Amino acid sequence: MADPSDDLHHDPLLAAVSRELRTAPGPALRSVARALDALSRERRRRWLAASAAAAVVLLGIALDLRIRARATLPVEFSVRSPASHAVTVVGDFNDWNRAAAPLTRHDGEWTVTLKLRPGRYRYAFLLDGSRWTADHRSPSADNDFDIPTSVITVAN
Amino acid sequence: MIRGATAEAALEQVSVPDRADRLSWQEEIDRALAQLAPDQREAFLLKHVEELNYEEIAGLTGASVPALKMRVNRACERLRTLLKDVYHG
Q1: Closest among B88, B26, B57 to A36, alpha carbons compared
Q2: Residue ranges of domains in chain B, CATH in brackets
Q3: Inter-chain touch B80–A13, beta carbons under 8 Å
Q4: CB contact under 8 A, B45 and A32
Q5: Are A32 and B41 within 8 A, CB to CB?
Q6: A133-137 — which CB contacts under 8 Å span 24+ positions?
Q7: Chain A contact probe: residue of B40, B76, B83, B86 with most A CBs at under 10 A
Q8: Which chain A residues are within 8 Å of B42, Cβ to Cβ?
Q9: C-alpha span between A7 and B27 (Å, rounded)
Q10: Exposure winner among A1, A5, A80, A120, fewest CB in 10 A?
Q11: Burial of A111 (0-12, 13-18, 19+ CB in 10 A)
């Protein structure tokens, strides 16, 4: 069905407006140009504002992801081994360096707190530099090294 | 789009009383157009002054055809309201 506003012939007032704007000299014609210019400027301004807002949001998301990825979280490792004289925790987070993370003894309980980035790490405890033991408080990991290993997931 | 010289020449051909009336009518149209929402003014001008069809306007503005028809409709209603007391057809 045709929209009445598509055809102004039935409406003398609007037909006169349209005719005036199309044919009249002076202000009316200039108003068309001004209106279209203003609309163009407004559209550019809106587009720039929307682009800037989108850029800020994306930057915020990127920064947040970057901060989250780089943030470290304290993770406590502990193992009970009263008979041991030295205990270290060795894993993916310290490239399986046997000496990087020594634990401190408290009445037979050995503990250390490491700052780790979010991720999934396999690890094991090394008792007196020769005996490996898994962390029985954590799930077992696939054993690629012929030693009992555990796995811990660090998340924000 | 604007043919200033032609427009000025046409203005010179209008008699003085007619010219005064016409300038007043033009000013009223200017004033009424300025009171339209920008998107409605744009749709009205493109449809009824530039005489584009809705598909062409949609291509220019990015708005959908139904949305443009709504804008033109509302612009027409508003112009009717704003100009009914000054229009002496």
Answers
A1: B57
A2: 4-83 (1.10.10.10)
A3: yes
A4: yes
A5: no
A6: A133/A79, A133/A81, A135/A77, A135/A79, A137/A78
A7: B76
A8: 35-36, 39
A9: 24
A10: A1
A11: middle
Contacting residues for B87 by C-beta, under 8 A, at least 6 apart:
A12, A13, A16, B25
The neighbour count for residue A139, using CB atoms within 10 Å, is: 10
Torsion of CA A39, A42, A47, A49, to 10 degrees: -170
Q: Is the pLDDT of residue A138 over 60?
A: yes
Q: pLDDT averaged over chain A?
A: 83
pLDDT above 70 (res A102)? yes
What are the helix and strand counts (H, E) for chain B? 5, 0
Contacts of A30 in chain B (CB under 8 A): 2
Q: Which positions 1-40 of B are in contact with A (Cβ < 8 Å)?
A: 1-3, 6-11, 22-23, 25-27, 29-30, 32-34, 38
pLDDT for A82 beyond 50:
yes
Nearest to B11 by CA among B21, B2, B20, B19: B19
Q: Which residue has the tokens 């991720």?
A: A119
CA distances in angstroms from B38 to A46, A61, A150, B34, B78, listed in the order given? 12, 33, 65, 8, 13
Tokens linked to A134: 């898994």
Could you tell me the sign of the dihedral formed by the alpha carbons of A28, A32, A34, A38, in that order? positive
d(CA B4, CA B24): 19
